[in-house]
Write a structure and sequence with these properties.
Largest sheet: 5 strands, parallel
CATH class: Alpha Beta
Strand order of the largest sheet: 2-1-3-4-5
Helix content: 40-55%
Strand content: 15-25%
Shape: elongated
CATH architecture: 3-Layer(aba) Sandwich
Structural class: alpha/beta
Distance between the termini: 45 Å
Oligomer: single chain
Radius of gyration: 20 Å
Length: 148
């Protein structure tokens, strides 16, 4: 019985090339907070759920990381920070090439005006500290497309 190949040699080579391509980097969460303990705690909470993160201790550092690291798929930022606060950071991100980045703001000290301003900047959510870890994880997983 003759041997009948379904794929041509060129198709077989193209399929092999696709199969050998490296996986895209996992989506990471950028945690921005000038409080080291808060950054580390949030990073640990995410890590326990298998979510990779990186941290920045200021809005300026966050902007540099966003420029240099395309694997960041979500940013969680504190509202009250020195120099560049959370709303200013979100505003700068919205004016950059990363304008569509999903952003969650967390704060232990927020006024109604802060929440309204954040919503005008199209943040995903505004969570008050202390927040429910399970709700945060569900939100993060959803925004990263991990809940499918």
């Amino acid at each position: 019985m003759p041997d009948h190949d379904i794929l041509s040699d060129a198709e077989r080579e193209a399929l092999s090339a696709v199969m050998l391509e490296p996986d895209l980097p996992a989506q990471r969460v950028l945690i921005v907070d000038d409080d080291k303990e808060a950054r580390e705690l949030l990073s640990k909470i995410l890590a326990l759920d298998g979510i990779r993160s990186m941290t920045a201790d200021s809005g300026e550092s966050a902007l540099k990381l966003l420029d240099s690291n395309k694997s960041i798929g979500l940013m969680i930022t504190d509202l009250r920070m020195q120099r560049l606060d959370g709303l200013e950071l979100v505003s700068k991100v919205r004016e950059s090439e990363r304008a569509a980045l999903p952003i969650i703001i967390v704060s232990g000290d927020a006024q109604a005006r802060d929440v309204i301003d954040a919503m005008h900047l199209s943040v995903v959510d505004f969570l008050l500290k202390p927040f429910d870890n399970h709700a945060l994880l569900a939100l993060v997983r959803h925004e990263l497309g991990m809940d499918l």
